[in-house]
Amino acid sequence: MSTSLELAQHLETARLASGLTRQQLTEQAGVSRQAVYRLFKGNDVQLSTLLAVMDVLQLDLITLPRTLKRGMPEFGATAPASHTPSAVQRRLASLKQGTVVPKGRP
User: Fold this and answer.
1) Separation between Cα atoms, residue 98 and residue 29, nearest integer Å
2) Is the CB of residue 39 less than 8 Å from the CB of residue 49?
3) Contact 39, 45 (CB under 8 A)
4) Reported pTM
5) For residue range 6-40, what is the model confidence (pLDDT) as tens digits?
6) Which one of 6, 45, 85, 99 is at 20 to 30 Å from 27 when CA atoms are compared?
7) Is residue 104 packed enough to be buried (19+ CB in 10 Å), middle (13-18) or exposed (0-12)?
């Protein structure tokens, strides 16, 4: 995810999947209605607001090195033509897609 708007869209998708209204999410997260509004508009919010909302939606905030992301198009980046994904990258991609690649096999 590279923009606040993309994050907001991801959070909105998670909120809809959870079946929570924005009001319910606001109450469960213990944040203001204005903060949730700003978050879902892709505006700047306090980190504590983002983390509280993500906690209610049962989402984790993780960091992913961009060099790893290049080999995994499903994370939104395209790999250079000369880039061959490493075994770790292939394994992570298979886990993300729900398939399992046996260790030691390309």
Assistant:
1) 30
2) yes
3) yes
4) 0.62
5) 999 999 999 999 999 999 999 999 999 999 999 99
6) 6
7) exposed
